[in-house]
Each structure stands twice: as C-alpha cells, then as structure tokens.
Specification:
It is a single chain. By secondary structure, the chain is α/β, with parallel strands linked by helices. It has a single domain, classed as 3-Layer(aba) Sandwich (Rossmann fold). Strands 1-3-2-4-5-6 form a six-stranded parallel β-sheet, sandwiched between helices. β4, α6 and β5 form a beta-alpha-beta unit. The protein starts with a strand and ends in a 10-residue tail after the last helix.
Length: about 270
C-alpha cells in the first residue's frame, strides 16, 4: 500500500491513490535503445571490476550493506520528501513521477510527500515555512520509515551556498535523529539539460550538507544522467521537468544507486 501527500496548496496535504504498475525488476524507459546507449557512461555498474567502484554513492560507507539492503527491501516502510519531481509534474497526468514508479517497482509501503516549488529552504507557492523540507519531516514524526529519501533542491536558487549547505545538514540530521533506525538518503537536482547546468552550485551545496550530516548522496548531475543528447527525449514540454520516459529513466537510475548502498565495499569482493 502506498500513501501520497500533496502539500503544495495552502489548505494542506491531501491523500491521493497511487496507481501501481507491474514491470520487470529493472525499470526500462520506453525509448529507443540508441538513446539509452548515450547515457551508458553514467550508469551505476552492478558488478564492478574493482572495489573502489562499489562506493560510487558518496557517503555509502556511513551505512552498512546489511542495513541498506533491509531498508530498501520489498514491502519496506518508506518516506519520500521532495519537490515537483516527486509530485510528478510533467508526466502524463502531472501527478506520476519517479517516486511513484520506484514505489510500485519495489512494492514499498510508502508515503510520498511532494510539494511543487519547495526545497530545503524554498517554500514553494505557499510562502510558508510549513512546506520546506525540514518542517514536513518534523510533521512526519509519527511515521516509522525504514528508508527516508530526500529529493531535490533545484528550487533553492535564491539562497547562498552556505545557507543552503547549513540547511541541508540540519534537515538531514533532523531526519536521522527523528528516525535513528532508518537509512536516510539525499538525491541532488536531476533536471534535464540545459536546465541542469544551472544547478551545479546547488548540487555542490547539497552534497556538502549531506556529507556533513553523514548521509549518502546520489548525484545525478555529477553522474551525468541527463545529457544534451538524451535530454530531448526525457524533458517535458516546459524544459524544466521530465516526461513519462524521463521519470521512468530517473526511477531506474535511482533504483541502481540505492542498490549500490547494499553492494560490497571497503575491500570486500564486489562480484
């Protein structure tokens, strides 16, 4: 069972049903194989040849492989906090994005909390701090997630890098303190090109905040998930969000990155 909250409106969140779709274990977007091959350099390899490749997710060493595997197992209780990408803006119905795809694929018991325009600092259209990430995490204290995913921050472009870094660290530390038994993971900006190029400073600030908080950081920008060559296939009409293929592709990449947290590392055999 999955739960969804949309907090992007002044009257507060509302629950919406999540449409589940059965697919093969590895999510694959419905685009030409030629387009897929263009992004192969950015894929996270499941069977790397050397142990260093097992640590492609920065901060992964802060979470034990067994703990990570348990947190992301089928049926786990998961909380996803994010912006319009988590809401699914740009998809066929505007409400079905990467989070919904990944939840259905892994059969998680998930609460999806997406607020368009929000971020670690930014409040979205509400202009109320009730809707930034830390406030929503604090209001979710009654939940008992095994995995907490905090997505985004590309809306935090009006604040300084240090302000953002500090807020990211504080937000992620709050999540860790609130759910000490949960695995907390941060995902950086994941816009298509050319929008992605404008998020470099934001991504670096979020990475620094996650590092300070001891939280694994998934970095779509550094991994070049979206390039000038594949973005045309994955971008929504506004050029700011993703279409259905783009969200399926993003879900697959995040799925692989999460698997990396459970992969052997620190001298263990990768194969």
């Amino acid at each position: 069972m999955a739960r969804r909250t949309d907090g992007g409106w002044p009257d507060g969140p509302r629950s919406l049903p999540l449409r589940r779709r059965r697919r093969r274990r590895r999510l694959m977007p419905a685009v030409a194989l030629g387009a897929m091959s263009l992004g192969v350099a950015g894929f996270l390899v499941m069977l790397p040849a050397v142990s260093d490749a097992c640590q492609s997710v920065p901060g992964a060493a802060n979470v034990s492989t067994n703990r990570a595997a348990s947190a992301m197992a089928r049926g786990s209780d998961v909380l996803i906090v994010g912006d319009s990408y988590t809401t699914g803006r740009g998809s066929y119905d505007g409400t079905h994005g990467w989070a919904q795809d990944l939840v259905a694929e892994r059969n998680w018991d998930a609460t999806i909390d997406g607020v368009p325009g929000s971020g670690y600092v930014n409040t979205g259209a509400t202009n109320s701090t009730r809707w930034n990430y830390i406030s929503r995490i604090e209001r979710s204290a009654s939940l008992t997630p095994e995995l907490v995913i905090v997505q985004g921050s590309q809306n935090d472009w009006l604040v300084s890098a240090e302000t953002l870094r500090t807020r990211v660290e504080r937000t992620l530390r709050t999540a860790k303190r609130q759910w000490p038994d949960a695995v907390v993971v941060a995902i950086g900006p994941s816009a298509p090109q050319p929008r992605a190029e404008t998020t470099a400073g934001i991504s670096a600030a979020v990475a620094a905040g996650a590092h300070a908080a001891g939280v694994p950081f998934i970095d779509p920008l550094d991994e070049q998930w979206f390039t000038r060559m594949n973005s045309a296939s994955y971008a929504a009409g506004d050029g700011q969000h993703l279409n259905d293929d783009g969200y399926r592709y993003l879900a697959a990449k995040i799925d692989d990155a999460l698997e990396e947290l459970a992969a052997p590392r620190d001298g263990e055999q990768c194969a």
